[in-house]
Specification:
heterodimer, A: 251 residues, Arc Repressor Mutant, subunit A, 3-stranded antiparallel sheet, 6 strands, 8% strand, B: 177 residues, alpha+beta, 2 domains, 5 helices, 10 strands, elongated, WH_DNA-bd_sf (chain B), ESCRT-II_cplx_Vps25-sub_N (chain B)
Chain lengths: 251, 177
Amino acid sequence: MRRRPGIAGLQTAAATRDQFRLVGENVAKVRTDVMKEQLATFRSQLEEFARKHKSDIRKNPIFRQQFHEMCAKVGVDPLASNKGVWAELLGIGDFYYELGVQIVDICIATRSHNGGLIDLLDLRKLLALKRKATVESLSEDDCLRAISKLKVLGSGFEVISVGRRKLVRSVPTELNKDHSGILGLAQAEGYVTVEQVEKEFSWSTGRAVDALETLLKEGLAMIDDGHRDGKRRYWFPCVTISSDTIVGEAK
Amino acid sequence: MQRLGDFRLPPFFNYPPYFTLQPVRETREKQVQLWKDLILEYCRSQKIHTISLEEDFPLFSNPKIERSLSHEAKEVFLAALVSEGRAEWMDKGHKRCLILWLRIQDWANLIINFVKDNGLEVMTIEEIRSGIDTRGTELEGIERSVLMRALRQLEQKGKAAIFKGTSADDEGVKFSV
């Protein structure tokens, strides 16, 4: 548009800007409408997809996870309500609800052994036993989703990362940095000595003993005075993976 | 799974801290519970009636992990069984312990049912302990004192009468079911 000099020119420029803005808004509106329409189409296609592949979604954990990710992209949460289209379509609400109940059972049953902290892989192994299924059929993703639903209960269920592992916490006990550090260190052999803790973190004996004794009192650690070197070892059931040493009472 | 003879050992047996008496109450309670159950199950399966704290008992150490129970720990676990009525100290010094993997009451019931099922009326004590009829049953090899106590219980209920024969070997019992 050819610029005209002077006030008239300015007025034209302002009017032109207004025009563009209106057009811009219209374009945005059209875009939103189109998007909404596309989204609605996508949602119904997703429903169709879920109907068709209901059995695969139930049986295959990898497929299930990808399905969840697809749903998340379009803002659908199949677990949000036990009623409604999704729950009826897939009965998926029941699957996670049932899983959540079993997780609670296992955490309660093992609490006196591990103090309320359990390695996520251990949990999956015990779940597999309980459900008479393979560990592979119950993915980490499945457990994390079920646990996130449990959090809604305000029961203190949480997944925390310590060292290289994920632990499921089912008691309100908070772990401070000293404690997490010790747990991380214990992941190497399943236990630590006061000496090892002192060396690793450059702590005083007092600080090391304090932290270990707190963990002991919380039921997260057990003492072992039976080694022939005479050094007391603090064992942490929550970092032991081997199913050999699990006190698996969740039958 | 590890075995002791033909007995399957539970997973906790391989976890070293369980061989040290735990100071924290809740953890200790769990530990005592596990050991109590293990002792009863093991004794029942191996038909062991007494444990002597002065002799080696295979259940009290695990060479695989190089751990053994201290004398104190053994006493604690056995004392727990005693207070539950599942064991009895045989001496004041708490050196020998009678393990009642079945209570006397349970033994009495077992005997009466056995006698009913097999249509027996009179048996000698030795026949009950080592005769053909009881071979392969839980009665085989039953500790004499335990057997006598069970029989006396039955006597009090009028279901049996203990009598002496011409010699000690002939001690017997007549059942009235």
